[in-house]
Write a structure and sequence with these properties.
mainly alpha, globular, single chain, 6 helices
Length: 151
């Protein structure tokens, strides 16, 4: 159940990276899911989520990108945190509903915690936002891959 919360937390950092990781792990057979959640691992699901995740990683670095705590960004993180939490929980033999709840909680914590951590690092280290954003990317990608590789 901890993994359901953590995958949600990573969705709070990058909303589309955990779904792409879950899609790949399901497609490769690491994560065993039943329908309808197994559809995330279909070839179209893998392709679409991978392209969206890569696009998000690039768009995040643009100066006019909306704040993740704005309603659209927050809702995206809640939805993807819940979806990936349900997948990870079900893949671990637990309740998809409980996993979704933990994923939603993780998504909210990751959204606001990641926002404040990033702002604090930029200010305290006197850096531009770009290297801190790259660090956040690495955490979201590495953390998501770690979670989905545990099955």
């Amino acid at each position: 159940m901890l993994f359901a919360f953590l995958i949600g937390l990573f969705a709070g950092l990058r909303s589309l990276t955990p779904p792409a990781a879950v899609a790949w792990s399901t497609h490769l057979g690491w994560l065993k899911l039943s329908r309808p959640l197994s559809l995330i691992g279909s070839l179209p699901g893998v392709i679409i989520l991978s392209l969206l995740a890569i696009t998000e990683l690039m768009v995040d670095k643009l100066p006019n990108t909306p704040n993740r705590t704005a309603p659209v960004g927050l809702i995206a993180r809640i939805v993807t945190g819940g979806l990936t939490g349900a997948c990870v929980s079900l893949g671990g033999g637990r309740s998809a509903l409980a996993g979704a709840g933990l994923g939603v909680a993780g998504g909210i914590v990751g959204c606001f915690g990641g926002y404040h951590a990033r702002a604090w690092l930029v200010k305290s280290l006197r850096l531009t936002d770009f290297p801190v954003a790259l660090l956040e990317d690495l955490i979201a990608i590495g953390g998501s891959l770690f979670i989905v590789s545990r099955f």
